[in-house]
Design brief:
Elements: H1 3-21, H2 25-36, H3 41-47, H4 57-91, H5 108-122, E1 126-127, E2 133-135, H6 136-141, E3 173-175, H7 181-189, E4 194-203, E5 215-225, H8 230-245, E6 251-258, E7 261-270, E8 287-296, H9 298-303, E9 312-319, H10 320-328, H11 341-344
Parallel strand pairs: 1-4
Antiparallel strand pairs: 2-3, 4-5, 5-9, 6-7, 7-8, 8-9
Helix pairs in contact: 1-4, 2-4, 5-10
The structure holds phenylalanine (PHE).
Length: 347
């Protein structure tokens, strides 16, 4: 091999190495100028053909052409590889904001429940808990429900194992029909004063419709202390109504009856939609019924061994679904349980 051929091959190898290092089109262009331009290395080497002995010329010429072709091919390859790379770099655009993972959120019932609990906690109430699976004594007897009270009927309450249990027996198990048994449990386990709220699930043998379910939620409240009055109850519920529904909302009491409160009331809030003037939401009355409440019946205090001469208290029990329906303008309670995400996403 002639000296020129050796130089040509070395130059090709050198150019290929340099191209392998080139990471940008500007670098490739620099190399192209260095090797392939009119004043480049290859032109200079071709100029040396004149010094090759005539006998070697055909072979050296062949090598020269081959090296030139290969070098051009190497440049083409390098350019193509680079544009390939930048195409993939574009496909994965690292500056694109990440797709957000859809986070779940609380069910509207849970939201309302926590909102209510937060309001009462600010007033000094403590959260209490009781079992969904309750006995007849806590759910009915201790709460002064007479044995012929309609809510005790087997058609109204879910009883367990009635084949072996009398539905009136104190230890027969039921699904609690109200959160009021937690009042009893709180007084059984804590000395006075007690000030508790208990959010929880209740069960009744109702045929489900737009405003009734077999299972629903209540938040129970109980405050027993020395000299607790109906005025305290009204003040507490009034504050709650303003916090929950709006600062202009007023409340009113209507006489009612519950076995475990005396006197008993039902309380209404002035309509949040019309401000009390009367509209479709409040059916023209200006008021929206919220829940039952009253002064703890002295007999209930006696049932847990407390002295009604020393202590008095108030209690209330609110349906959560009802509040959620008012708050969110939902007209069918069953929507809350169908778990249709298109519905739930709205809250
Ligand atoms: N437990 C009653 C109900 O379910 C509500 C209530 C609770 C009323 C406490 C008065 C006092 O209807």
């Amino acid at each position: 091999m002639t000296e020129l051929e050796e130089k040509l091959l070395a130059t090709l190898a050198e150019a290929k190495d340099a191209l392998a290092q080139a990471k940008a089109s500007s670098a490739i262009e620099e190399l192209r100028i260095k090797y392939l331009s009119r004043k480049g290395v290859m032109t200079a080497l071709m100029g040396q053909m004149g010094t090759v002995p005539p006998a070697d010329k055909p072979a050296v010429g062949k090598t020269l052409n081959l090296v030139k072709k290969q070098m051009e091919a190497a440049f083409q390859e390098a350019t193509a590889a680079l544009s390939d790379q930048s195409a993939t770099a574009q496909a994965i655009d690292v500056t694109l904001p990440a797709r957000l993972r859809a986070l779940g959120h609380q069910h509207p019932i849970t939201q309302v429940m926590e909102q209510a609990v937060a309001i009462f906690r600010r007033m000094g109430f403590v959260v209490a808990d009781g079992p969904d699976l309750e006995d007849v004594w806590h759910n009915f007897d201790a709460l002064n429900a007479p044995q012929d009270h309609p809510s005790r009927a087997v058609t109204d309450t879910f009883y367990f194992d009635l084949e072996h249990h009398d539905y009136l027996a104190k230890d027969t198990m039921i699904l609690r029909t109200q959160t009021s048994p937690v009042q009893i449990r709180a007084m059984e386990t804590h000395p006075a004063p007690v000030r508790i709220v208990c959010p929880g699930r209740c069960y009744r043998r109702d045929t489900p419709d737009a405003t009734h379910g077999m299972s629903f939620h209540q938040i129970e409240g109980l405050y027993v202390d020395k000299k607790v009055s109906l005025a305290d109850l009204k003040g507490t519920l009034s504050y709650y109504a303003k916090e929950m529904f709006g600062s202009n909302v007023k409340i009113r009491f209507r006489p009612h009856f519950f076995p475990f409160t005396e006197p008993s009331v039902e309380w209404d809030a002035s309509c949040m939609a019309c401000g009390g003037k009367g509209c479709k939401v409040c059916k023209g009355t200006g008021w929206i019924e919220i829940s039952g409440a009253g002064m703890v019946n002295p007999q209930v205090l006696r049932n847990v061994g407390w002295d009604p001469e020393q202590l008095s208290g108030y209690a209330f029990g609110m349906g959560i679904e009802r509040i959620a329906m008012i708050q969110y303008g939902i007209n069918d309670l069953r929507l809350l349980y169908e778990n249709d995400l298109r519905f739930l996403h709205q809250f």
